[in-house]
From TrEMBL:
CDD domains in alphabetical order: AdoMet_MTases, HTH_ARSR
Protein name: Transcriptional regulator
Domain HTH arsR-type stretches: 8-105
The organism's taxonomic lineage, starting at the top: Bacteria, Pseudomonadati, Pseudomonadota, Gammaproteobacteria, Pseudomonadales
Top-level taxon of the source organism: Bacteria
């Protein structure tokens, strides 16, 4: 045997080497940090860090190859996010290492100047969505039904909520993005007090007319977002978001803010599109995102301290699929406090 031969390395360590090498650049660590809950495209990340697109593409390629990022196709555009498969069951050496890297990075707060740039990008997305609804408020139902007729997802969502309400004494409810208010009669029939928040004055005007027509006297309409409500005292037993996530700048924040607005033991019910590749929905329906993978929603819910409940998937003839998801905020046992 040749005593000078190179010893064989451990396959596990071979897999870790590119992972830690990819983390050897401070800019890449910054990229991973801002992608904790957000999803950004190459151009957006270039704007955030004042880096040329070619340089940013190189950094993203290195992080992707190391398993620290994964691309997400949104029609003709590519966005980047953290991997979705880092659940507790993934006990591989690299999986443990990636989770530890993220935990360490997330302890460092985002610099204020960088947070301002992130908010600017979110505001650009929000302006884009608001401009669409301002232009198409009178044709809202027709535009939305290009993708999914209201009854196709509203009825299963209503059935799920009614089944849960039969076992609980819900008093307060919040609907995020009520649109024309078509779902408000369902919630108002279950809860004593309902708040509906929407960032479109045109949509709230239509929702107000629905409340008048349906004689819904227990509904309060608020112009704003879930963030608008955080400073108030109201908390809710039930939170509903029907076909809203694909219109908001940062869907993950909806889970965080909804969780904060929920009472202990409360329910969050979401219906939204599953991931698709029909890019025309951006221009014709004002969509910012082309649906979501179920794992994506579950990760955001878990980060917000919510437990995953039942899920229903509704296939549509035009190739779209709607998912109805249920999330629970665990009850606090005051006896243990």
């Amino acid at each position: 045997m040749n005593s000078l031969s190179t010893p064989k390395s451990d396959p596990g360590l071979d897999a870790l080497a590119p992972l830690y090498k990819a983390c050897g650049d401070p800019l890449r660590l910054e990229i991973l940090r801002v992608l904790r809950r957000d999803t950004f495209g190459v151009l957006e990340l270039s704007q955030l860090f004042d880096v040329r697109q070619s340089g940013m593409s190189h950094h993203l390629k290195v992080l992707h190859k190391a398993g620290l990022l994964e691309p997400q196709r949104e029609g003709n555009a590519i966005f980047y996010r953290r991997p979705l498969n880092l659940n507790a069951e993934n006990t591989s050496l690299t999986g443990d290492a990636v989770r530890q890297i993220f935990r360490t990075i997330d302890q460092v707060p985002v610099a204020s100047h960088l947070q301002e740039k992130i908010e600017a990008i979110r505001n650009q997305r929000a302006d884009q969505s608001q401009a669409f609804f301002a232009r198409h408020a009178e044709q809202f139902r027709e535009q939305q039904e290009l993708i999914a007729a209201f009854d196709l997802y509203a009825e299963p969502t209503a059935e799920l909520i009614r089944a849960r309400a039969a076992r609980h004494q819900w008093r307060t409810a919040l609907e995020i993005g009520p649109g024309e208010g078509a779902f408000l009669p369902v919630i108002a029939d279950i809860c004593q007090h309902v708040v509906a928040v929407d960032n479109s004055a045109d949509m709230l005007r239509k929702a107000r007319q629905t409340c008048t027509d349906q004689k819904l006297e227990n509904v309060e309409l608020v112009l704003g977002t879930t963030a608008t409500l955080l400073g108030g005292q109201q908390r809710f037993d039930l939170v509903v978001a029907n076909m809203v996530l694909h219109h908001v700048p940062s869907p993950a924040d909806i889970f965080l803010e909804a969780s904060e607005l929920m009472n202990s033991g409360g329910y969050l019910v979401i219906s939204d599109l599953r991931s698709h590749d029909q890019d025309w929905a951006r221009e014709n329906c004002g969509d910012l995102w082309l649906g979501f993978q179920p794992e994506e929603l579950n990760v955001w819910a878990s980060d917000a301290g919510l437990e995953t409940g039942e899920a229903m998937f509704i296939g549509l003839r035009n190739g779209f699929q709607v998912q109805v998801r249920e999330y629970l905020k665990p009850e606090i046992d005051h006896r243990s406090q």
